[in-house]
## 1
Amino acid sequence: MGSTVCRTVVEQNDMTLVAAVDPKMAGIDFYQMTGVKARGIEVVGDVSVLPMLGVDVVVDFTNAEAARRNLAFFAENKIRCVVGTTGFSSDDIVGFQEVFRQKKVGAIIASNFSIGAVLMMKFAALAAGFFDSAEIVEMHHERKLDAPSGTAIETAKMISDVRKRLGKGFLEDPTKRETIPGARGAHGGENIHIHSLRTVGAVAHQEVIFGTLGQSLSLRHDSYERSSFMPGVVLALREVFAIDSLKLGIDWIIQRELNDVFGGDSRRGED
């Protein structure tokens, strides 16, 4: 993801790549490490040097442990950030929101930067009120360490929130006994089950399956390459300069695009 982000930034006419951070690759030639043709780029081992390099915004695709430290540093040094790291707790998010609000620094944390995936989640939320059951199947590459994916968790939450607002619950799981524990997957709330697959050759895939009397609806999104996340990253990089606090997801950015087509409320995303 880091190399792909670097390549994407270099290709933008209104962006300049200033540095790359990789603790294991510090001091190594940037082109040798990434294959991205860019001159004067430093590969540094720690974010602490970024303020001296004149960085305006950072893209963070690390892990939750590293990102917790990084985000606190970015806010303190008034460096905007676009974050694709998942695995944060609710308390983490509340803490991030508070510090970025206090420092008046723009930041965006999103579980998925694929525009197609974001639309799939919005479509799932739209459909949630019309069906009696919902299951989520997510599949990722064999190197993904966490399960379920952040996208699956967020999708379940969006569906669940719709059901709660409508005062409807999904039908209870009829399963009384799992012959093999875990066969019905993880509980995503409101009787929504999440099933995680880790498969060689996969990148990022998710299907939401709704059911009601005599019919079903399946919403599926597939990312075949990491380049699929880059249009969303670019959108976030441009939008983060217009905000002065932490925003979650990029659906509120995409919603504005939908409003331009269909009309509707164009308010900014909620904190």
## 2
Amino acid sequence: MADEVPNPTPPANFPKQAVVVIHGMGEQQPMDTITAFVRAAWQTDDSVLDPTVDDPSEVWSKPDDKTGTLELRRITTRQSRPSTTFKEGVRTDFFELYWADLSSGSTLAQVESWVCGLLFRNPCDRVPAKLRLAWTVLWLSCLAILYLAAAPVIKPEACAWSFCPYGWVNHFGWLKDNWAWIGPLVAGAIALGGNYLVVPYFGRVVRYTTAKPDNVAARKEIRERGMALLDALHDGTYDRILLVSHSLGSILGYDLLNYYWASRPQAYTFAIDDPDFKHLIEIERCVAALRAEEYTPQDKTLADFRTAQTTFQRAMRARPKPTKVNGVVNRKEDRRWLITDFVTVGSPLTHSDILLTTDMTAFRQKIENRQYSVCPPVREILEEKNVAEAEAAGFILNETPPRLMSFPFTDAKKQKRCWQLHYATPFSAVRWTNIHDPAHLIFCGDIVSGPVGGTLFGTGVVDVDLRKTNKKQSWRFTHLLYWQLDNDDTMTPRVAELRKAIDLAGDRL
């Protein structure tokens, strides 16, 4: 009997979405971050599970052929409950963008140089007010370390303020007679502590955020891994992609979003006779309205903008899936854009004016130069020769001079007149939600995080202040608790906001 041709349709033929989780700084082990995240975001969330399915919270750990490393596996779920977007539910694949292995190699000297750059700033205009207390504590800590390192070479009776931190050695005869040994021992202990406690964490901050010659190759490898993953997820398997970034990983996620958008101009190019050209006109209108209200937008204006983003991305996701030639996806013909949401938690992007640049003036200049993208995107002055064409196409031009995010050109291949968004406009189609826990007295709450919208990345960013949603201040350091459940697996306010932002059932698509 001839072999039967296998059915190409899998038994569980549900729509699929991909969630990419990007970890932050530290010595993370592969799969640790994503395992805890899936438990909080899926397995314990009854509001997204399908009650008609046996064991609806069940997940499977499957081989991961997307991230390019055999240390990782993707976690696959059953289908979710039905929603307005996914009538029969949607299955989710969780991926971890692991990059700790590519960001190691920093030295204590590099970290010290970076810390010195933070210390020797003018506190009046180059240290944000919200960080001045932390900046002062950093100075005091460094002075204390220097004093502890220098004190062993000073006799107890000569120590400053009649205080010697190593005066206890006088109670031990051998140590008292060999005082000179204390200095090297203390210096060695401080160096070991720095290498094993400071460098593995802050070394990764230096490695990724500082574009110095020693770091360029590592930054390139990290970004290439992320770009390759996003490209692989556009192979026709998935209908939606979400980026969820924690801590330092949010800077990486932000970079990837910008680079990947710029690499896919076919996704944000619209022919005038294209059915979704009307959505380009609408997002332009909503961006103009939001920018007109500066940094105090009306609730309706912001809601209209978010609705226009959702409609715009829906049209881009609904485009035909790419064709395959000999099993290989034709990327150049793929006009879809699948990333719907960028969710940041505990993000240091709130300190972008000192982490990514020297001060706020330099940061704003890079936004105007389109080096950094914002939400809503920057709009440019429309060339005078294109004004009449824009009005004829349906764009609303009520400013002097007129501004748009897009510009016209002729597609030589298709012989059509088209409009294309400029390359720094990913947030025309991607919704950005930032969850943060304001710090109190440095160590209560999350000093690393803060709002990223408003004067930083724009009023189109939805900043979720956990102090307001929780109605009380956190009295412990919460930077690592954004998806940590209570001991009995009950939901915390932080987890509740995370679940709302990622919207795994697709209620807001």
## 3
Amino acid sequence: MTFTDNVSAVGTGGKQDDIITSLAPGVRLSGETARLRVFADYSLRFLNYARTSGRDTTQNTLNTFGTFEAVERWLYVDAGWTISQQTISAFGAQNAGVGSLNANSTETSNFRLSPYVRGRLGSFANYELRYSINDISSKSALTTNTRNEVFSGRLNGATALAALGWGLEANRQSVEYANGRHSQIDSLRGRLVYTFNPSWRANFSIGQESNNFSLAGESARLTHGYGADWTPNERMRVSAFREKRFFGFGHNISVSYRTPFAALRFIDTRDVSVTPNQSGTASVGTYYDLLFAQLASSVPDPVARAQQVNSTLAQAGISPTAAITNGFLSSRALVRRRQDVSLIFNGRRNTVTYTLFQSEQQSATVGAAGVDDFTASTSIRQRGMSSNLSHRLSPSTSINTLTSWQRSEGNTGLSTKTTNASLGVTTRFGARTTGSFTLRMTRSDGVTSFAENAVLAALNLQF
């Protein structure tokens, strides 16, 4: 149950308090056989508003993925489906929490299916042929549903020099927007990889790519790039790659380091995206997403990793679906620069997460596109941070503090800043029963300005 003094996240003149009762039955399953691995977590949330008649609703939350080996060591199928609440506009009211009657939030579904074959051509090379389809839809008329299809092929082999390897990659990515626009990128690249020693590796690429972003039609351009990977030990990895593209220079830099109790990650990328990111443009996602990515190197199996992530968050009293920072949905091709650094520390009594990020997105499409934030601002910059501290007072009780802020700015002067803070206590009443009590404060200034204070009480039962 939640008591809020601003259920619709609006300015002072339209504030209305309410009591929200939420019931969310759910099911979680995971399994593994010789050829199938699957994980699924689904809940259906019923929301009742005591003082806002006619606004009762339901919300779906789904996170599922799996891999099926259809033909032993040759044909595989990957699949996934996520459903969550997403922010529509960077300048609208950002989600204050579950139950907020926010017109700037919508339920978004992302279904992914990817069959592929993988094998070896004698002693010559390894190959992979893959087809991927990604359907993204939402319940809001303010967003554009899309279908993304990718055909890709890869060849990787060795040369007479043991340290020198090669690769060929061909990709065709096609996106159909519900507004009728069609975007497509075709690329062909050749790669050389030289391994100096087990710790150092250099990469070089040359190729060609074309797209139809311009009104003049498709145009082909030469691409070339270089980079290096450094892996001094199993706990640390540094990777950097820079490539000349049709939009200028793109790059991908990543640094990851982990210890038995902590994990640090830094990412800096600049690339083009033709698919609207379901987690929101430039968003670092939820606490589940953050920890899932942080544990990728230490727990490579996704099913085992999902179980460990949920267990760690439950012990710390952190909701897996809690957003670290909010992104926003787009309906066109973008050139996106994103930088973020995140730290997770998990000690005997303290769990600390800290994330700092900034991003800049620019429309890569010339001509008509869907109506979104880039209709008013061709360039949008976001900056934000989030920190969470969970301290275990006893084996069964923990206290949690969360602070975050985020600022979105357009090149036409649009700007919104949102600050959140919460303090909560979580306790375990039994082996399968936990309860929590939380105080929450949200402040927003700019294009959308409002203030909200709330008190939340929750009970969680597992069977």
